[in-house]
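Hello,

Our lab assistant flagged a job as stuck in the queue for most of the afternoon. It eventually completed. Since we weren't sure the result was trustworthy after the delay, we are filing this so someone can double-check. Below is the sequence as submitted and the structure that was eventually returned. Let us know if re-running is recommended.
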Amino acid sequence: MREQVRIFIHLLLMVITFFTTTWAGSEWITGKNVWMEDYSMDDFYEGLNFSVPFLLFLTFHEFGHYITARVNGVSSSLPYYIPLPPFPLSIGTLGAIIRLRTRYISVREHFDIGIAGPLAGFIIALLVLIYGFLTLPPADYIFQLHPEYEAYGPDYADYVYGQEGIIDITIGKNLLFLILENALADPERMPNPHEIMHYPYLFAGFLAMVFTSLNLLPVGQLDGGHVLYGLFGYRIHRVVASAVFMGFMFYAGLGLVNPGLPHDELWWYVAGYGFFLYLSFTGLGMPAQTTLMYTLLVFAAQVGMAWLVPGIKGYHGWLLFGFVLGRLIGVTHPKTDFAEPISQGRKILGWIALLIFILTFTPNPIEVITP
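-- returned structure --
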């Protein structure tokens, strides 16, 4: 009976996430919020073009973990889908996770379970993006969603962005996105980066790549952390993961503390952000004094860059992810009881996974400029 309740919870969360991602997708595509009076079932059906490929990616990713765990005799839960309500700029979900119930796992098992999800999900994300680039609608498709652009004709981008009172949303591009765009897309049909969210397959494939790259960060017990641990062991993992995490937080916080601010505001920024950074760096697993030293070094480097290059700005959206990573997940990887080296074939797959991380990481995934 208890197992039946668990399965019911998994199914319920999956169904709720299906609806929330479909609602979110319809808003990105059509610009209509689910709470608007003119929102219709046709708008909901439009959202399926986003939710189905994106949930297919999440499902393959998590079941890649789940099936590999079961094959290795490791007890694991089914995926828990995490829905988000349909508020503005939501994608309807925070992703999905599985929970491993076995406490002691070997290096090989960590590696196999960790790498299986990103590889399975990446294949789906790649296929979705390829399909999106090969099936781009005609260039005037954007005028159906933004009829006000039609007055400017094909050169609408020169006139509509940056106007007062308009929310401007720009989608960043990673290396793989650029490679596929140049190889597959019809230049006449390729949307402006400000409009990619209206193209559901491109948007779903892009977000799938972002999720893949975040999971493949070679830090802690993220999938990329398991891969790094399997390739190099505990000591090198600790050094590389710590360096990557501090570099990630350095970039994320660039420009947040601006030396040019009035002194009464600057002190609040310094105190608040400094404390936030210190809490995040506790995930390094170092003594308090060492943690404080690294916090001050990164903080000073950020302020120095802001002073040398006025206007420099990282992607502040990564700060929350970095805080969760440092404070809840941790930067280091726990030692395993069975530290046998992995096979040559697994090492090749590990390097492929790290290459996928480089190809899919997007420094500035979504930029939102509000009026």
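-- support follow-up --
The delay was a queue issue, not a problem with the job. The result is valid. Residues 41-71 form the longest helix (31 residues). Residues 234-338 form one domain.
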